[in-house]
């Protein structure tokens, strides 16, 4: 092709001083946000970005994505890091390259629409802390959800990048909804809103190379702002799509450093640089510098994160994305959810039901949070619907969607489903047609009042306004009001390497051998036997109390028994009444049953993963148990309150969704065993009703 003229390459040209291309492709590096979000559950710590920060600043990226998306949530929740501080710290090392963040429109960096006052102040503070480019998207591509944030981005003098979430209903671009005209009309709408650049956000890796070519070519002709392609690797097509988009004249593409590349992340930068070397779209990057960065990442950073990589499958691509068009993250959520409910055998039914639910709900794109909304409802339908009735159990989020709280769907929602969902809906049975945030009351003042005395500045207050439960807990850690638990503290490279060594030894059987050699103490008459259920496995565990500290004297694995009654399948947001009406017989001894030979712990250090609390076990009544692991958001009831069957007792956050757990029976709350902010395991007793 004439516009890809080769220049004569010598070894010297590997370095930066090779002739500059006529129209270099600009590259945004995503390693420090989408890279670790995709591969390592967003657990990347600021301290692990610093070893390469200055070198990455020298590469010549158009921008580096370093913030937003899930980072704000995971940092304060799991890493005990102040999200605002990350921007300021990185800015001290990365001085030339602009910073980019992922902004979920009116959802900001959360999972629901926030009120306008919170949205405005959040964007302003992000800009003031050092954010330069605001990559803004809305899960429904409803740009009314941009109307509040865009003027603030602009008035702060920052770059507004408008996204179009890329989705399909057909195997390839086309059909009645998501066709070329749809994408062109969205690009024009973004241009009219003042977009400084337009991003095709292909979160599931669905864009096929020749469709990427068609869309980019058409957009370049139709609108003025630069066109940017963000395509996840999940399906395996993204590197091919990059190349076709580059041929079509795309201005910017997203990629990551090799250790952060592929799987559900993005294609790597290094092969792209080599593929374009010497062409008129040569990036101009120094491949040797990229090599040096890689070496540091591999040696000093990756050992700390390797254990988070999902390497259960040989393939690094997900063929299911090609077959079912479900984003990689959504797929693993669905599988986890079914596994939780012992219903993994229903996965084929879920695949079949998913497109029906999506169609009923207005053919919405599948991206956070709509992917969860559609996914959870699909599982509910598969588990609970029968020949006579569909949508037997509708989640709160589907009701919100039907009300219009997320925005306008691509095609109208199935009227029958909508009517059923809105029956008795607290905001009203008639859906809204206005911009969703217009029905939301201001939130900032109230949040500021609530967090008075703990929050020190506006950034603390915003953190609390966005995440009241985990935000408050983080501020307590931050200001030394509470000690941060061990699991949120960073791990050193030495620790990480030691752990890997241990895993290696365990796999080689060396640890097991040692354990076998330990002689068991003789059994005494104090021996008590406990039945312990771990998923499908049942263990009879003898506990012999010696000197006040329980030790395991024998442990025998028995054939798998059916799940205990209280583990009966219950979907997210739903609760199946347990078959038994009283709590399991509790040991009379004051100590909690010890299922593992752990060293005695001080009673005060309540571990979130501990066995059910003795308090619940000794109160007679019907337990309300957690249908899945999660975090307590709040209790709607207190001890002594009366409840009717089905009334909400506690709100549990699981898989990024809030689930109202209803009372399994009518009665009085006899015990509340947890508090707001506590992490709970599946089947933990959360309250007892009698
Ligand atoms: Co992404």
End-to-end gap: 78 Å
What is the structural class?
alpha/beta
CATH architecture descriptor text of the largest domain: Alpha-Beta Barrel
Helix content: 25-40%
Could you tell me the number of beta strands? Answer: 19
**Rg, please?**
27 Å
Number of helices: 23
How is this structure best summarized?
The chain has 690 residues and is of the alpha/beta class. Helix content is 34%, strand content 15%. The termini are far apart.
Q: How would you summarize the topology of this molecule?
A:
Elements lengths: L25 E4 L1 H9 L10 H10 L3 E6 L2 H8 L4 H11 L5 E5 L12 H14 L3 E4 L12 H7 L3 E7 L14 H13 L4 E6 L6 H14 L4 E5 L6 H10 L4 E4 L13 H8 L10 H15 L17 H6 L3 H13 L6 H14 L9 H15 L11 H8 L11 H7 L22 H7 L7 H9 L1 H11 L14 H15 L2 H8 L10 E7 L2 E10 L2 E10 L55 H5 L3 E4 L4 E6 L6 E2 L4 E7 L2 E6 L4 E6 L6 E2 L4 E5 L1
Helix pairs in contact: 2-11, 5-19, 7-8, 8-9, 13-15, 14-15, 16-17, 19-20
